[in-house]
Amino acid sequence: MKLSVGFRRAVSTDIDFLLLLRKSTMTEHLNNAGFNFSEQDHINRINEFFNDSFIITNHQQNIGLIKLGVFSTRIHIRQFQILPAFHRKGIGSYVLNVVKKKARENQLPVTLNVLFDNPAKDLYIRHGFYVEEQSALEYKMRWEES
User: How many of the other CB atoms lie within 10 Å of CB of 95?
Assistant: First the structure.
């Protein structure tokens, strides 16, 4: 099936989808990092900066989330998740290319944080992100136009 990726602003009726998405994409990585998130913890994270949330769609079906903080000095990817059934289909690359295009247009770098064992780090490296620093639990990564 040909992909038809789109974006729309998240609304309150998306919470159930976002909870399913978050649990299916983050639970393993959070557990490996020593976190045991409750359902309420996941909901709190979903609601944090909710106005920055965009649902990623494929043929108008909800398949993911990109949550962007846009600042005067950078664009920060707060959260980026795609349903596992849609991994390895080029969607992550497509979304990152859209974010990088917006960054280029605004002459801004892109930053993000990724847990140590999250394989998404490999996607970010393929897209030119590099580890700027690390904390006890995650890499702080950055991309900027060279």
Answer: 21
CA dist list (Å): 142 to 82, 103, 129, 131? 20, 12, 5, 7
Residue 65 φ/ψ, nearest 5 degrees: -145, 140
Which residues partner with 5 through β-bridges? 58
Rounding to the nearest 10 degrees, give the CA dihedral for residues 98, 104, 109, 113: 0
E strand segments, 10-145: 53-58, 61-70, 75-82, 110-115, 130-134, 138-143
pLDDT digits (tens, 9 = 90+) for 21-78: 999 999 888 888 788 888 999 999 999 999 999 999 999 999 999 999 999 999 999 9
